[in-house]
Amino acid sequence: MTELPLEQVRTLLAVVDEGTFDAAAAALHVTPSAVSQRVKALEQRTGRVLLQRTKPVRPTQSGAVLVRYARQLARLERDARGELGLSGAGEPTRVSVAVNADSLATWFLGALTRVRGLCFELHREDEAHTAALLREGRVMAAVTSSPEPVPGCSVRPLGRMRYLPVAAPEFAASHLAGPLPEALPEAPVVVFDRKDDFQDGFVRRLGRGSASPLRHYVPTSEGFVDAIAAGLGWGMVPQAQAEPLLAGGRLVRLVPDEWTDVTLYWQQWKLDSPALAALADAVAVTAAQELRGH
């Protein structure tokens, strides 16, 4: 059985985090030659190329497995030190999480307030892509739309976020006066970023190819809603954000009985970590209260 020397694994992690062999050497207080030798020794031991020698350095698929392993070891070490009372002063327990922008803007921060004594490092990413950050070992947990667990991770359903097709009243009157299946593909649309397929997906449900190429990219959840309310275009808005604007007359629903539901899941490392367990419980409780479909 091939052993994985901790010194070599931790050096690989330092190279990935710091971006270069020289920067990793400075962080580890060793020479760049020592860093290079450790990485090469680990590659020889595993029989795989672990790093793409780019600037910054990036792990290969095999390297990402070892990076995730190194982060999990570091998490377990910090937990053990904390339980033994050996954590250094001023050394916070930090948990890194990937979360989509709409969850961050509506319900997720409420979950974090339920957990005491932790510091959080949040990575904002589309829910269809947050699992990739878990796979790469960049985060310990993620809110994701994928029910398939990343290797080494557990998964549990959280509930469903409901998205409503809406527009400002003036926009709807001027651009969407005709039959919606014909008017909507021609009307200006607001999208989050180039990964955002919600609006195109809704148009496809109406029997058309995609939303209009006349589109505005607004990559913040709050800005996205504000852009639609300002009349730049139509879009799919989380119900929690749309309801007060609908009640105030700033938005109108394009189709009363149409929406898109996105099922969300919580994935996290399979570690006996008190910090991760506390966060997972808080997320589950908050999601049960806030997400539609529970």
Distance between the termini: 46 Å
Number of strands: 11
Largest sheet: 7 strands, mixed
Determine the strand fraction and express it as a percent band.
15-25%
The portion of residues assigned to helices is: 40-55%
Average predicted local confidence, pLDDT = 90
By helix and strand content, what is the structural category?
alpha/beta
Number of helices: 13
Low-confidence stretches: none
Pattern of helices and strands? HHHEEHEHHEHEEHHEHEHEHEEH
In angstroms, what is the radius of gyration?
Answer: 23 Å
Shape: elongated
What structural keywords apply?
alpha/beta; 7-stranded mixed β-sheet; two-stranded antiparallel sheet; 294 residues
Tell me the layout of helices and strands.
Elements: H1 6-18, H2 21-28, H3 32-46, E1 51-52, E2 58-59, H4 61-83, E3 93-99, H5 101-106, H6 108-112, E4 118-124, H7 130-135, E5 141-144, E6 153-167, H8 169-175, H9 180-183, E7 189-191, H10 198-205, E8 215-217, H11 221-229, E9 235-238, H12 239-247, E10 252-253, E11 260-269, H13 274-290
Parallel strand pairs: 3-4, 3-5, 7-8
Antiparallel strand pairs: 1-2, 5-11, 6-9, 6-10, 6-11
